[in-house]
Inverse folding.
């Protein structure tokens, strides 16, 4: 028997397959059970990981009561995150929510409240948090390599959420168009759209780069494509005491960044009083420019230590050592990012700058 049992709750998000692979490959973990109301959505995982039938559930309560597990992975539609966590929390499990945090600040606070007093960890997984380039950028900022941070520039996205399955398996354009009308990704009520899909990456890691500082006001503009009820492109500007930062999300890039970086390049540019850092998604380096050396210096990305290279090994390490969830995964920091998201949604709807929502 493996030391830690892990549950996979809902297959709405295609990242569930990638997360279960991390569980399957970890020497101290096993897949204790998986749940989705539609068994057909679990079939690929059942085959890939050899999950026995007595660990496959289409009833959530049965999954939670009949399995022995330490950790629950939540991959439900964004609008269902709070409902899912409220059902899981009484069962004494640590909980990891796959990004984004929630569909609203109110839901995020419901999630935090549900886990209070349980003595269990709550974390929000932002896959960009594990990229060596962004961790290196954070280290350099903390070391004062570019002086005081005054601007965060973020651009990220992909061709669209339906173009790939678990393990980045490609989906044809024809199949994408067939799935769009029924997909939760393209339904406003389910928390769809590029803004909710990707803005949290920028606002959460941006808040991390800013050491927890929140902006004063937010202005956001989204595209309005006929026949599509959610946005596929958003640009958000946040005004801080020290200056302006920009966060841009895009479904419809020419290429996916994990195969070939599109232009604009996906990732961050961090500007300080004495320099700047370019940190691209999937890059094995960051680019540093300073007042003392204006050349673009490529700094090799740090090698992340064991226990901090991916979400499953991180969660199991925190379960074992009892240390708190930190960095971009910390729900308190994520709540600031969620407040920025809610502000962006409000701003785009009212077509005006708005104060950061409480």
């Amino acid at each position: 028997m493996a030391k830690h049992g892990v549950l996979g709750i809902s297959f709405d998000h295609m990242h569930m397959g990638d997360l279960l692979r991390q569980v399957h490959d970890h020497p101290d973990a096993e897949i204790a059970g998986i749940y989705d109301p539609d068994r057909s959505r679990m079939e690929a995982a059942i085959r890939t990981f050899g999950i026995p039938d007595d660990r496959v559930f289409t009833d959530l309560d049965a999954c939670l009561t009949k399995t022995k597990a330490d950790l629950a992975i939540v991959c439900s539609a964004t609008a269902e995150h709070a409902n899912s966590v409220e059902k899981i929390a009484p069962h004494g499990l640590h909980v990891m929510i796959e990004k984004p945090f929630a569909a609203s600040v109110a839901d995020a606070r419901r999630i935090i409240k549900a886990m209070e007093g349980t003595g269990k960890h709550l974390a929000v997984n932002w896959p960009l948090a594990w990229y060596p380039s962004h961790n290196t950028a954070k280290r350099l900022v903390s070391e004062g390599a570019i002086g005081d941070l005054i601007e965060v520039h973020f651009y990220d996205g992909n061709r669209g959420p339906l173009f790939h399955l678990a393990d980045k398996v490609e989906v044809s354009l024809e199949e994408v168009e067939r799935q769009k009308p029924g997909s939760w990704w393209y339904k406003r009520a389910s928390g769809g759209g590029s803004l909710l899909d990707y803005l949290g990456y920028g606002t959460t890691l941006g808040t991390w780069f800013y050491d927890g500082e929140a902006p004063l006001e937010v202005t956001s503009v989204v595209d309005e494509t006929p026949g599509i009820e959610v946005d596929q492109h958003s640009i958000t500007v946040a005004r801080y005491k020290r200056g302006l930062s920009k966060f841009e999300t895009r479904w419809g890039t020419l290429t996916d960044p994990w195969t070939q970086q599109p232009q604009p390049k996906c990732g961050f540019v961090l500007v300080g009083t004495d320099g700047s850092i370019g940190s691209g998604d999937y890059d094995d380096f960051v680019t540093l420019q300073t007042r003392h050396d204006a050349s673009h210096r490529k700094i090799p990305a740090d090698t992340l230590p064991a226990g901090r290279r991916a979400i499953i090994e991180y969660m199991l390490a925190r379960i074992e050592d009892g240390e708190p969830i930190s960095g971009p995964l910390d729900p308190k920091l994520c709540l600031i990012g969620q407040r920025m998201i809610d502000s962006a949604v409000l701003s785009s709807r009212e077509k005006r700058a708005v104060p950061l929502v409480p």
